[in-house]
Amino acid sequence: MGKYKPLQNFLGAGPKRPLSLSYEQIELILGAGLPTSAHEYAEWWANEALSTTTHVQCRAWIGAGFDAHPDVAAKIVEFRPRSY
Q1: CB neighbours (10 Å) of residue 15?
Q2: CA-to-CA separations, 52 to 6, 26, 56, 58, in angstroms, rounded
Q3: Angle at Cα 7 formed by Cα 4 and Cα 13, nearest 5°?
Q4: CB within 10 Å: which end of the chain, N or C, has fewer?
Q5: What is the pTM of this model?
Q6: To 5 degrees, how large is the angle CA 28–CA 31–CA 36?
Q7: Can you give the C-alpha Rg of the chain in angstroms?
Q8: Per-residue pLDDT reduced to its tens digit, 55-67
């Protein structure tokens, strides 16, 4: 999960409340660009069970206690506290 660990750390360090980040802000947090699929497909931002997901990006926000809700057209993701 190395590439997405900075996002997990960022989300985990703040209060558990909804937070909207632009793709550009996420890329600054990561220190790297998001893949093309993140820009084109909402499915890239899918929320899956931490215990079964094989998607490293999902592990970052789920591991920090959030679900991702993207607006691909606007290039914004709202991270909402995960309800268990």
Answers
A1: 6
A2: 21, 24, 11, 11
A3: 140
A4: C
A5: 0.93
A6: 85
A7: 11
A8: 999 999 999 999 9
